[in-house]
Every structure is written in C-alpha cells, then in structure tokens.
Amino acid sequence: MPRPQDPDDQKLYYSGKKKKHTIKNVLLIDTMLTILFLSDTVEGKRHDKKIADSTPYSLPAGSQLLQNLGFQAFTLKGVETIMPTKKPRSGELTAEQKAENRLISQRRVRIEHVNSSVKRCRMAKEVIRLTKKGVRDLVMEVCCALHNFRVCWSAWQPMT
C-alpha cells in the first residue's frame, strides 16, 4: 500500500520484515488446493498467529493442520498440527527428523504455489491505491475466487 500520511497509520502499517507499508491476510487451504477461508485484511505489522487467534474458524475433528513457524503455539480443538522440527541451538537434527522435515516441506511447497497463484493477479501483490473502505478485502476475495476457479478447471494435482 502507499505510505500513509498519518503518522499513526505509518506505524500501524509498517512491516519491519518487508521494509514497506503492507497489509496481509491468512488463508486456509484444503488438500485439493482450494482456498476454504480468507481472513480479514489487516495491517502488515500484526503477527500471523494473532490474526489466526482473532479469526473464528473451525476444522472437523481429526483434521491435520499444516502450519509454518509463524503459527507456533496455535492450536485448534481436535485438530492435529504439523510443523517442521527446529534445529536445537547447540545441536543437529537426527536423520529421521530431517526426513520428516523434508516430507513436510514437500507439502508446504504446494501451499506456496497456492499463494503465488493468488498473487498471479497483480492487484494482490503490487501497491494498491484504492482507499475506499472494504475495497482491499474485495480485491483479495476476487483473487482467491479466481484461484479456486483455476483449480476447478485445470489439472492441479491434490496434495498428498
């Protein structure tokens, strides 16, 4: 987003990681790589886990939730969370931990492909100068809907 003129908004939307003023969303994706849930658009400074905590959604009991390290300590009732194992500070991972991390990363790559498919609509990744209330949410909804349409009509392989 363009740099806000208001100093309070500048602090709110500034993402130290990206070194820009940004907005973000959290997506929930199923094994068929269809986007099931899109969170509200929030300021880029807010942490991913805080967005997930404040967003009311549920998954069926017995589901698996594959999440990255930005969602550490985030849990849902009756849902198994799958995260890569971090290397200990003064040690190494075992061979089986490395193999497990490799399997998780192979699944994670498919999720990153979904993110890049959403960003294929350049409105979602470039500076958006539309400032009317709710327009940024609408832009992201349209980009996610176009991704789901592409998944419906093309040969995307399901995630294993």
Quick summary:
With 160 residues, this protein is an alpha+beta fold. It has helices at residues 7-13, 48-54, 95-118, 135-153, and strands spanning 14-15, 20-21, 23-24, 27-29, 35-38, 42-43, 64-66, 80-82.
Tell me what you see in this structure.
There is one protein chain. Strands 1-2 form a two-stranded antiparallel ribbon. It has a two-stranded antiparallel sheet with strand order 3-6. Strands 4-5 form a two-stranded antiparallel sheet. The protein has helices at 7-13, 48-54, 95-118, 135-153; strands spanning 14-15, 20-21, 23-24, 27-29, 35-38, 42-43, 64-66, 80-82. The chain has four helices and eight strands. It is an alpha+beta fold. The longest helix has 24 residues, at 95-118. 36% of the residues lie in helices and 13% in strands.
> Which structural class should the secondary elements be placed in?
alpha+beta
Listing every helix as H and every strand as E from the N terminus to the C terminus, the arrangement reads HEEEEEEHEEHH
Query: What order do the strands of the largest sheet run in, or round the barrel if closed?
Result: 1-2
Q: Categorize the overall geometry.
A: globular
Instruction: Give the C-alpha Rg.
Output: 17 Å
- In round numbers, the mean pLDDT is 83
Q: Separation of termini?
A: 36 Å
Number of distinct helices: 4
Q: How many β-strand runs? A: 8
Report the sheet-strand fraction.
5-15%
**Largest pleated sheet:** 2 strands, antiparallel
Please state the oligomeric state of the protein chains shown: single chain
* Helix coverage percent: 25-40%
Spans with pLDDT under 50 lasting ≥5 residues?
Answer: none
